Amino acid sequence: MSQDLKYEEMECVVFTVSFVAVLITIRRKMTSNKSPDMGLSKSKNVQQHRVSSGNVKKLQDLSWWIPFGIILIFTIATRFYNVTEPQHVCWDETHFGKMGSWYINRTFFFDVHPPLGKMLIALSGYLTGYDGTFPFEKPGDKFENVNYVGMRVFCTFLGATIVPLSYLIVWELTKSVPSSIFAAIFVLCDVGLLTLNQYILLDPILLCFMMCATWGMVRVGSLKHKPFTLSWWGWLSFTGTSLACTISVKFVGLFVVLLVGLYTIYELWRELGDLTKSMKYILQHLLARCLCLIILPMCLYMAFFYIHLTVLNKSGGGDGFYSSEFQSLLQGNSLYNATMPRQLAYGASITLKNHRTGGGYLHSHWHLYPEGVGARQQQITTYSHKDDNNLWLVKKFDSDEMPSESELVKHGDLIRLEHVITRRNLHSHKEIAPISKKHYQVTGYGENGTGDANDVWKILIHNGKEGDVVETVTSKLKFVHYLHHCVLTCSGRTLPKWGYSQQEVSCNPNMRDKNSLWNIEDNHYAKLPNVSFRVYAPSFLDRFLESHAVMLQGNSDLKIKEGEVSSRPWQWPINYRGQFFSGSNHRIYLLGNPIIWWGNIIFLILFTVVYIHAAVREHRGYEEDKCVVEHRKIVMEAGSWLFIGWLLHYVPFWAMTRVLYFHHYFPALLYSSMLTGITLNYIIENILVIFPGKIGNTIYHVIVGIVISSAMYSFYLFSPLAYGMDGPSALDADSPMHSLRWLDSWEF
Predict the structure, then answer these.
(1) Do 486 and 371 reside in the same domain of the chain?
(2) Which of 319, 367, 573, 631 has the fewest Cβ atoms surrounding its Cβ within 10 A?
């Protein structure tokens, strides 16, 4: 590890010296270019003027490309260093590596995120020789003879692009090389971004597409004087494509869609205010943006889902989250190419699926409700996976004898449901439900199918009438308790450990409970003719819409898992607590570079102050040099859009009730880091106005040196959090990391 630290220390010094030298050179060139010899005679020949202009252009190009090239070199060096380590599953690699395997094996699964990121992970693994057999069961599992490197390198590559993209975005907004350099350095030197981008995760893919969308947005803005050219159409289409890709990785991509939408409205409003432009011209702009920023992303988004649903055509563990009709298209599912009776008869063995989005199967098992939770009788739950504990026998309410001839179940019939495995009846009584305290408890009761009058239910078809026959899949059913006039429902609430984290089933006195609808999925009865399940197969649009309903429901139901550390939005900007990626001997800890993160907070405040100051000066009509006013306007507009980007990617989390984690802040971090680069350079430029000449240049060099060396050195100090820590934890006074535990909440 000492050799690694020496390498990083040398790299840090080289990087700092390189950038300070580049910025000083740029500063000198800018100064010399701004102060031409006004005594030159107008009679200078034209050829000499052209040569001089060409040299200036070359110098400007070099002053842009040299720092950009250095940034690329150090991005590659820092991001791909030790990318194969640790050689075991880290954090959420257990989820997304596993999902990549399922894509390769074409096994259907449920996830709360759209499919593009996972499909790209699977594609990168497939193209680099991964065969989809490693189980990715839990963090810490060793990669033994597993070709996982291709997937890590792919994610790392996409994550690495955010550094040069930050340079390009700030350049397009300000046309300032120093601002671009500062922004890129702050993104490059954040150890949190480095950690997040080196593993098989969705986050590096999301951040890459998000930054591409932002870059495309500002590029289109830069081309506002060249509308409808080939380049303009290309960048507008690039922006729309990036938006589609961003929201196809995670739904939080919606925030950058909002940013681009606001920017587009602003641009159109500005065009509308230009009275030299005709309404026909404005309408052309509107239609172009509708085509490239609405229609194109929607088509691509649906295309990604079409590929997703086409590839995953085999039954898997996530089938039960989807409707019976949806499952009928999955090879290996009990409903695929299935034949079963269309109608329900007494004596049939059935499964009942709750009709709410993502609803599970009515389920029971031998376990009892614990002491103090209603009557100590057999548990009744809903369960999202298929097994024999989901099977129920349909009986008449007043007889255990099965009819010799088939007798159909109709709307309004009184029935009993006997659990096939335990032979106890579905039962309710006036005991309080485990979680929903206004509901009655539902239990399994009786012995060998014999219970009492509390086992009787009236079966009702939703919008049905007397004489209607109950049908498989298509009939939406309510089960009303005969004595207590409550309706069988799934509250959607997760039971504690004693209920194996399955969902609560209760009996609700409110007959209009929206979660009280059920449908029959499996229907086994030998005395009725079978029909093919193909008649229930949904269209692509039906599956597309259902997928979204299930994903949104899954997102809202996310709860913290045992042993996980969640966080709240107030903790994120201050870098209050990190997150373990690997807790073995080779520890990885997700934590932001405190110098950069705390600096971002300061510069968010400073930008607000500077913006208000500039607005007051403009409103009061102070007379200033036209170039100064124009420059300030460019900086304030650029900073405003980055500030809005930060707000859109941060503030919405305050309203979310689902479980949240530290890594949710990193999209907002990118915008605040770019804003810091712009604001810092603007403040330095104004200091130079106050202190002209050699004093100003000295101050400039000192500030630049302090800023860059602080960012570089803090990266060097905290880099073991990303590259891996061995030995004692920072809690131990003998640990080399002990002195870096600046906050007690940092747990590395």
Answers:
(1) yes
(2) 367
Read out DSSP for 221-257?
HHTTTSTTSHHHHHHHHHHHHHHHHHHTT-GGGHHHH
Q: What is the pLDDT of residue 51?
A: 41
- Is residue 228 left, alpha or beta, with left meaning phi > 0 and alpha meaning psi from -120 to 50? left
Residue 626 falls inside a structural domain: no
Residues 367 and 231 reside in one and the same domain: no
Q: How many CA atoms lie within 13 A of 674 on its CB side?
A: 33
* CA–CA distance, 29 with 63 (Å, rounded to integer): 9
Cα–Cα dist 206/257, whole Å: 13
Count of beta carbons in the 10 Å neighbourhood of residue 535:
11
197 CB-near residues (< 8 Å, 6+ apart): 79, 155, 156, 158, 159, 160, 162, 203, 204, 207
Q: In Å, how far are 342, 391, 513, 658 from 531, measured between CA atoms?
A: 6, 20, 32, 43
What's the pLDDT at 1? 44
Q: What residue numbers bound the domain in which 469 lies? A: 324-556
Domain boundary among 531, 556, 581: 556
Strand partners, 457: 415, 481
Write out 454-480 in H/E/C secondary structure. HHCEEEEECCCCCCCECECCCCCEEEE
Round to whole Å and give the CA distance between 735 and 746: 14
> Distance between CA atoms of 222 and 184, rounded to whole angstroms?
20
User: Could you give the CA distance from residue 25 to residue 27 in angstroms, rounded to a whole number?
Assistant: 5
Q: Which residues neighbour 563 within 8 Å (Cβ) at sequence distance 6 or greater?
A: none
CB atoms within 10 A of CB 536: 19
Identify the CATH number of the domain in which residue 415 sits. Answer: 2.80.10.50
| Same domain, residue pair 293 and 421 | no
Q: How far apart are CA 623 and CA 498, in angstroms?
A: 74
Q: What is the pTM of this model?
A: 0.84
Name the phi and psi angles at 713, rounded to 5: -70, -35
Beta partners for residue 508, in sequence order: 487
Q: How many CB atoms lie within 10 A of CB 315?
A: 19
Q: What is the pLDDT of residue 678?
A: 95
Task: Copy the structure tokens of residue 738.
Answer: 């002990």
Residue 77 structure tokens: 């060096």
Q: How many other CB atoms are found less than 10 A from the CB of residue 164? A: 20
Query: Residue 529 domain-assigned?
Result: yes
Tally of structural domains, the chain? 2
pLDDT given at position 534: 79
685 domain residue, yes or no: no
Question: What is the spatial distance between Cα 246 and Cα 657, in angstroms, rounded to a whole number?
Answer: 23
**3 state DSSP class of 481:** strand
Say which residue the tokens 């994550």 belong to.
159
Inter-CA distances, 533 with 310, 317, 520, 626, Å: 19, 21, 13, 75
Instruction: Please list, residue by residue across 671-699, b when 16 or more beta carbons sit within 10 angstroms of its beta carbon and e when fewer do.
Output: bbbbbbbbbbbbebbeebeeeeeeebbee
Give domain status of residue 147, yes or no.
no
474 plus 385 within the same structural domain: yes
**Cis before residue 86, ω within 30 degrees of 0?**
yes
- Determine the Cα–Cα distance for residues 266 and 390; give it in Å rounded to an integer: 56
Low-confidence stretches of the chain (pLDDT < 50) are: 1-7, 32-53
Paired with 356 in beta bridges are none
Mark whether 419 and 496 lie in a shared domain: yes
Same structural domain, 365 and 297: no
Last residue of a domain, one of 506, 522, 556: 556
Same domain flag for 294 and 341: no
